[in-house]
Amino acid sequence: MAEAKTFVYCSEASPEGFDPAPYTAGGTFDASAHPIYNRLTEFKQGTTEVEPGLAESWEVSADGMEYTFKLRQGVKWQSSDTFTPTRDFNADDVIFSYDRQGNAENPWHQYIAGITYEYYTSMAMPELIKSIEKVDDYTVKFTLNQPEAPFLANIAMPFASIVSKEYADALMAAGTPEDLNNLPIGTGPFKFVAYQKDAVIRYQKNADYWGTAPLIDDLVFAITPDAAVRLQKLKANECQLMPYPAPADIEAIKADPNLKMDEQAGLNVGYLAYNTTMAPFDNPNVRKALNMAINKQAIVDAVFQGAAVPAKNPIPPTMWSYNDAVQDDAYDPEAAKKMLEEAGVKDLSMKIWAMPVQRPYMPNARRTAELMQEDLSKVGVSVEIISYEWGEYLQKSMEAGRDGAVILGWTGDNGDPDNFLSVLLSCTSAGEGGANRAFWCNEDFSKLLQDAKVTADQAERTKLYEQAQVIFKEQAPWFTIAHSTQYVPMSNKVSGFKMSPLGDFTFDTVDIAE
Amino acid sequence: MIRFIFSKLLYLVPTFLGITVIAFSFVRILPGDPVLLMAGERGVTPERHAQLTAQLGYDKNIVLQYFDFLGRLFHGDFGNSLVTKKPVLTEFLTLFPATVELGLCAIIIATLIGVPVGVLAAMRRGSWFDQVSMTAALVGFSMPIFWWGLLLIIFFSGILGWTPVSGRISLMFFFPDVTGFMLIDSLISGQDGAFASALSHLILPSVVLATIPLAVIARQTRSAMLEVMGEDYVRTARAKGMPPFRVIGIHALRNAMVPVVTTIGLQIGVLIAGAILTETIFSWPGIGKWMIDSISRRDYPVVQSGLLLIAGLVMLVNLLVDLTYGLINPRIRVK
Asked: Per the database record, which ranges form the Solute-binding protein family domain (chain A) (predicted)?
């Protein structure tokens, strides 16, 4: 027998737990949902396209309210030292996996004190799903309260991973329900072996996997929070692939003959959101004038060090329905000055909020704000830069009557335009607690989104979203900054890694040369 | 002696209560609300916010919250992490041995090098050795740990390839935790090369962590020695023709060690502060890294109980230092 192939991934963070449903961090999903579990639908690797997962096929009723899923047969649950499954995956597992998240009466809703299902709640699943019925062992019918076009993409997200009801029952009977979170059992390509907190997670190839078997035998996550140390480990071949290199190291990685690097435009957007409810920012012409006064390319060059594309639309160019025909506001300080005069705005002083943390869509908000400050001063607008601690920033930036324009951004969850446009710019999300930091409520725009949401036909939806992007640009609730590039450095020996536009790290197609 | 121990113990009670107040208030003075950090950029509706706040118990009066916290502490309940939902005490106990192992190695290195260097510097006062070592100590004392750690990694692991970059042991080795101390567990495992691997992983982080205590101990030893060597009894011993080795070893060193032992004890607090950074750089799975992560996530229960556990530990060590001090120097006991 050939020697076992071990692949080591220098992951950036410790997982919060191994049950994907209660958590929200990407690092947690990379360690739980992706290696261990499957969902009814899956994102085709390297894309945001939805493909069959544990559901082999589905039918949608004419009114778009009923989804009937045919489940894959003969899918084996993994086994462990403490659990041996007696049956294959079936409809009971599907119903259990959803019901425990949405139904407060389900004994598994609070199987660990203080556990909550934030993704399930924030994707509005409780309002959306009316009922889930078992038609037979391999058929499940979801009935919705209203049509929801992104539904199939939503249930491909990590929170909707299918867990074993039989395993859960066994744990409940044994009085150790929290082992669902500590010793996970799934149907995915890898089996969980062991976790040493903050140090290492070990997985083994699932020999009974229903899909294409992984090419590596052992998968190891070496938890390494510091980016500089991750790179050193990669260079020393202590791991073969790492996420999130420091922007300053990109050139050195490219120059290293033992390493290679994948790069891709991220499914994200960084933006500056005006408060469109407050004068003079309630005037679209003023917002447009300010947009024209800021040199976007200079920000991309200086802050992102070129690792980004300037943004003109609120959705990234890799996403379907991206409207490339939209013209960005040209950088033209003279015209901007004139427009401000015409709007009767003189001696404007405003605040720009700079977030205190680094995000994939924004490596340095402070620097960005400073560049904006400089540009705006040239058209006679004085800018004061303010910042708060991150939690405070998130809270204050969504308070109605907020003073100033806020730098923030978004990374897509499921590759659907609705996940950007409705969440960030619709009238519904402009209310208290919503994520619409421009408080922008445009009836025409929101109507288009609503229509698109209840339309199943993607060509039809594309048209509606394209129109919405035109309105967005005319009304300019944001200064759109950039869509950042994501880099994945890896050893030369690695093949078959597919970058996910959603930012996930999966290793079932990865191979390593000896 | 018993009265001395008792009075020291009694003194701990108000100190500990004071620390509970500080630990409790500390996380609440920090801006930022755990519910919002959980929601992130996504936003959270006011109803959901209220619901989660109530579920976490943060809607209650702050004084009530404090007494709840204190009440649970007396029952040995340190609360559950908001993030992992696991008991804080369990997490602490899982990670603690890694920190102890690292800390012990660091303090051993710091003492074994710091004391002789200090003694030698004192004996050869004004010599090149004295000047070089004391300048080095000053540099070591002011070294930013994060930068220093990274520098050593890049040099010894990156360029020379002598030591591993981070972690506690090569990932090739896989065996269950018995004691939580990697050096011991790797021996128990009986796997070839496991102990050597564990040891090689310990070198850089413990050197980094030892840097500041080493500098402090060397300087303290030197000044204590100088003071003692000026005393009459040392001069007498010398005058009587006692060999220098005995003068230094028996008379001077023993007395000079009294303040040095205190210094070493006090370095435990410094070590914990240093461990927070060192563990983060070296991906060392101990309590330092755990605290940093928890502070940035506003994991209230972990931060407050974690602080308490660490403070309790430092107090315990200080108590032991006081007692040792009392043993070496009986005059301390009758004050």
From this structure: 49-430
CATH number at residue B288: 1.10.3720.10
What number of H helices and E strands is found in chain A? 18, 19
End-to-end CA distance of chain A: 15
d(CA B334, CA A298): 73
Collapse the DSSP code of A473 into the 3-class scheme (helix H, G, I; strand E, B; otherwise coil) and give the result: helix
Of A197, A202, A435, the CB nearest to B285: A197
CATH code for the domain of A154 = 3.90.76.10
Domain total of chain B: 1
Q: pLDDT tens digits for A10-49? A: 999 899 999 999 998 889 999 999 999 999 999 998 888 8
Distance CA B329, CA B324 (A): 8
CA nearest neighbour of A154 among A414, A500, A502: A414
**Residue A42 CB neighbour total at 10 angstroms:** 17
Task: Check which CATH number belongs to the domain holding A337 and give it.
Answer: 3.10.105.10
Q: Is residue A459 located within the same domain as residue A507? A: no
For an interface test with A, give the residue of B33, B35, B36, B72 to mutate (most A CBs within 10 A). Answer: B36
* Cα(A421)–Cα(A414) distance, integer angstroms: 13
Q: What is the ipTM of this complex?
A: 0.86
Q: How many domains does chain A have?
A: 2
Considering the domain boundaries, does residue B22 fall inside one? no
- Say if residue A452 is in the same domain as residue A427: yes
Does residue A499 share a domain with residue A462? no
CA angle, A72 then A74 then A80, to 5°: 115
pLDDT digits (tens, 9 = 90+) for A336-373: 999 999 999 999 999 999 999 888 899 899 999 999 99
In-domain check, residue B146: yes
In angstroms, the separation between the Cα of residue A154 and the nearest Cα of chain B is 15
Token pair belonging to A393: 């920033």
Separation between Cα atoms, residue A402 and residue A404, nearest integer Å: 6
β-bridge pairing A139-144 and A190-196: unpaired
Mean pLDDT of chain B: 87
- Residue A121 to residue A323: CA distance in whole angstroms: 30
Distance from CA of A388 to the nearest CA of B (A): 9
CA distance A242 to A491: 9
Which residue range(s) make up the domain with A179? 6-224+493-512
Range of the domain at B108: 95-299
